[in-house]
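stage 2 :: seqdesign
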């Protein structure tokens, strides 16, 4: 299973659920026929894009605001084989979370979160000294090895953009 979105809140009175999409665009999940939430499979009636990260999800049998509210903060999954094949250099967030971050052959931490609020995704690393954030931009990320779950970082470029939280 692949984590594709998270329920935010009910939207309107007809059972729509506002979701935060964990894909490049909500368009990636508009074709889904079913999703898995809290271990149960639901038929998707429709998905409507709201913005670059948000969409409205309508599930079969979820017909009121109260029904939709039950999905607040719920993780939304899809079977991986139902998702479109990605272009090279594009990744599902779920495949990256938990990856080791390596600089000059040394592990500096684990990727714990990816923030999607602007022109570039911001990666959050949990280290022994606290959190470090950096944008996923050309030059900073040298290589992503999904098989080994390792992200290789260019130290010089990383030092220019990293934000340290204590």
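stage 2 :: out
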């Amino acid at each position: 299973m692949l984590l594709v979105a998270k329920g935010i809140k009910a939207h309107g009175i007809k059972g729509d659920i506002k979701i935060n999409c964990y894909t490049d665009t909500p368009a990636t999940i508009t074709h889904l026929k079913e999703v898995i939430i809290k271990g149960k499979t639901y038929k998707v009636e429709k998905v409507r894009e709201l913005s670059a990260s948000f969409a409205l999800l309508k599930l079969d049998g979820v017909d009121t605001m109260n029904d939709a509210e039950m999905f607040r903060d719920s993780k939304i999954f899809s079977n991986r084989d139902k998702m479109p094949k990605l272009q090279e250099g594009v990744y599902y967030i779920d495949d990256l979370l938990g990856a080791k971050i390596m600089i000059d052959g040394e592990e500096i931490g684990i990727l714990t979160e990816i923030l999607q609020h602007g022109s570039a995704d911001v990666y959050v690393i949990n280290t022994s000294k606290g959190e470090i954030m950096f944008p996923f931009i050309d030059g900073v990320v040298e290589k992503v090895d999904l098989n080994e779950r390792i992200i290789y970082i260019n130290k010089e470029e990383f030092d220019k953009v990293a934000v340290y939280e204590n």
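stage 3 :: structure notes
- The chain has a mean pLDDT of 92.
- Residues 93-165 form a domain with the SH3 type barrels. fold (CATH 2.30.30.240).
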